[in-house]
Design brief:
This protein is of the alpha+beta class and 293 residues long. It contains nine helices and twelve strands. The strands form two sheets. Strands 1, 2, 3, 4, 5, 6, 7 and 9 form an eight-stranded mixed beta sheet that branches.
């Protein structure tokens, strides 16, 4: 049997990080949503043998270090389903090391696909609980709707969807280490006025002005003042974005637009300097079919 799942990019509308806890993790509070920028996962069962994988991106290893294979092994171990030989094919479109949750989205897509193949009666909430063992963004990526995420990523509160808008997502030619960014937060302990609760209330009223004004990411507070991240944000704002923000621990920056024409023009302009730039809408309800639970 074969099933295909699309894995949409994650965007942090807000991101607050608490102090490092005794277990070494940081508690987070973040409003997350998805953009219609997808990786594509195809699962083929009944192949005989072990779990194998291929990917169209040569930079990505297809061994046991890959989160997709780890997700598959976790699924079979937790559910007791017998692996009759599984092959995973990944088409990579989400920029890597960008703060867009590409690896997490891929792992989540594997879990959703395996549920369809082996355990269709399984609740999505069970997948979310399983997913936390793979990473803090994976439970959200299993769900894939606008959500308040708390704790280590295991506390999920579904929120009203974003009003129709467009994101111009720009990934510069450098990456930022997640571990180093967290270390900088611990070292500098910046005071950040991020209003996640304000965004949740604005979502209830579908107030795009209030939503856009409250975008924020505490990781921006530990960047150097001359960081190119801020330069990209300025260019997005000058091109008509309602607001602009770094996603996750970076280095991708997105601008939120309410006019598709302005977003298209901005993407075309920025792409001349930053080839990994694209225009994408929000993840629309019911689309694509392969993403339905």
């Amino acid at each position: 049997m074969k099933v295909t799942e699309l894995a949409p990019a994650k965007l942090n509308l807000t991101l607050e990080v608490g102090e490092k806890q005794a277990d070494g993790y940081h508690a987070v509070q973040s409003v997350m949503s998805c953009a219609a920028l997808y990786d594509e996962i195809t699962l083929k069962s009944g192949m005989g043998g072990e779990i194998t994988m291929d990917c169209d991106c040569a930079q990505l290893p297809c061994d046991d270090t890959n989160l997709c294979i780890r997700a598959a092994r976790l699924f079979f171990r937790k559910t007791g389903a017998v692996c009759d030989g599984l092959h995973i094919s990944l088409v990579k479109r989400i920029p890597m090391q960008a703060g867009l949750g590409g690896g997490s989205a891929d792992a989540a897509a594997v879990l959703r696909g395996l549920r369809k193949l082996y355990r269709p009666e399984m609740m999505i909430k069970d997948l979310e609980r399983m997913a936390i063992e793979l990473g803090s963004d994976v439970p959200f990526c299993v769900r894939g709707v606008t959500t308040m995420v708390r704790g280590r990523g295991e506390q999920l509160l579904k929120l009203p969807k974003l009003p129709l808008c467009w994101f111009v997502i720009c990934k510069p030619d450098f990456s930022l280490s997640t571990a180093e960014m967290y270390a900088e937060l611990d070292r500098k302990q910046p005071q950040c006025a991020i209003d996640s609760l304000g965004v949740t209330k604005a979502l209830e009223y579908q107030d795009m002005l209030e939503i856009s004004q409250r975008l924020g990411n505490c990781f921006e507070a530990v960047l150097e003042a001359d960081s190119e991240i801020f330069s990209i944000k300025k260019k997005l704002l000058a091109a008509g974005a309602r607001n602009a923000c770094m996603s996750g621990s970076g280095s991708a920056v997105y601008g939120l637009f309410t006019e598709e024409g302005a977003a298209k023009a901005a993407a075309e302009t920025l792409k001349k300097e930053y080839p990994q730039t694209c225009k994408r809408s929000i993840l629309k309800p019911g689309l694509p079919k392969a993403f339905k639970n």
